[in-house]
Amino acid sequence: MGRLMEIYKPMKKARSELLIKHHFFGKLVMHLELVETDQVDTMATDGSKIYYNRDFVDTLTHQEIVGVQVHEVLHVVFKHHLRRGKRDKHYWNCAGDYIINAVAKEGGFILPEGALFNPDYAGMSTEKVYSLIYNDAELKEQHANALCTGEVIDAVNEQTGKELTEVEIKELEQKVTIEVIQAEQSAKSIGKGGDAFKSMINTVKTQSVPWDEVLCDLVVSQHTTSDYNFNRANRRFIYKNMYLPSVETKPLLTLCWGWDVSGSVDEDETATYTDIINTVNATLNVGKNIIIYCDNRVRKVDVFEQGEEVELEYYRGGGTDFEPVFKYIDKELDNEIDSLVYLTDGYGYTDEKYEPDYPVFWATTGTSKYFKFGEVIEVD
Q1: How many CA atoms lie less than 13 Å away from 192 in the CB half-sphere?
Q2: pTM of model > 0.70
Q3: Are 77 and 130 within one domain?
Q4: Is residue 4 part of a domain?
Q5: Domain span at residue 362?
Q6: What digits encode the pLDDT tens for the residues 172-192?
Q7: Residue 1 above 70 pLDDT?
């Protein structure tokens, strides 16, 4: 689509600013090749490139160029290039713009005048906004000639140029998910965080990625090298509609799973969490899974060795206290684990003094206000 030439200086300058001042987006934009073309009116992305029209770029201020590049990155983060299906391309782009422009605005980025924004759509999915616009005659007419900030182009197979298969779509979705998580971790590692950043990232993750994929990817990304192989998905769990890449992992891991059995977890949730544990095991070199059943004290502990399929037992207990799990790991396991994933409804007590050296992930079906440390994944 584009011409091979030196990257236009204003585009390069904007990208450099993202790397320096907005590390999360800077890491993500570096995955996208910049290509100049006159075949788009503004900017566009297909998930691997950002196409830009020089004449359009010349109408923008520097901060608007930064904002539109963020806009295109967010199209990829929200997987708009993979999720359209049979929906109308223009109205899908409009719906996507409403979602990502809200995120960009929350992040403090400047977008060109006329960018689509409506606070009434806050918290909605792109599919929901599309439905509201497309199925309402008045809204549909209002948006018929709407000029979007940037375009989103359906991804295709780069070798054949053909439409992606379902498996290829899932593999690319997984690739984006891991890139988002890695960019978040990188930004945190250099202190580019803060409350505003956390709020924006939570919006991105909860609206763009199903919670079970987020949980799997967080654990997987914590224990993998950078050698991801997306040419072949891990096929063992495709039948569960969970697609993980083949990866190079660290040596045999010991994963600990805190299982909240305080009385609010039902049998369906037990089955869901069982699938997630086994999906993680299918991707990583896990030598041992330790399942700690706990309400206000440790009730039982199950150990599954390498190659054994984990089966959580449905168990109903009493009140909730998170501390016994950490104390058990300290006293009985000498803190010799690689990660703890705590599966809970969130209604319990934690104290910062119990924050361990190993990574902690909370998967909660309820509140997250009681967690004083670790990564939190809200289960819907």
Answers
A1: 19
A2: no
A3: yes
A4: no
A5: 175-378
A6: 887 887 888 788 877 777 766
A7: no
